[in-house]
Task: structure prediction
Amino acid sequence: MMIWRKRKVDFAFDKNIIKLSIFYFYSDKKMRLFSKLIFSFLLSFISIGLASAQVSVPSQTFNLGTNVDGVWDQTAQTLTVQGNGKIDRNKWFHVKGTLGLEQTALNKIEFKSGVQFPDNASWFFWSVKTANILFPVGMDTTNLNNVYLMFAEAVSFD
Result:
């Protein structure tokens, strides 16, 4: 006697949940093996699709404050923060949203010499997916007075 069984597997990715259901006969070993192969194929297909996600915003230069620019290179998937001044907190969060830094990992975010964080840098890198964030040696951070949860949920950066 063949009995249909349904097994649900839930995967969490960011804020979306992908649900896959696999049906198979418990009494048929070949069918179980076949189901596992299909499941593995689907899982690898989903993983490849998620890993290849890139920011589609065209290359451009963002004004990040007085004498500070964020140069976005779409081809290299890098953001270079350069200039000689302090980053404006509101402008940073605008660029962070425009590039989707909480959803997509860039290849690199690089801060050049002469750039300062805003006085209130709380939540600055919150939930940023990029693992490669470079700071210049001797970066001036003397102006910082609030770094509350500056790197919170930026698990790739750990």
Notes: Helices lie at 29-51, 89-98.
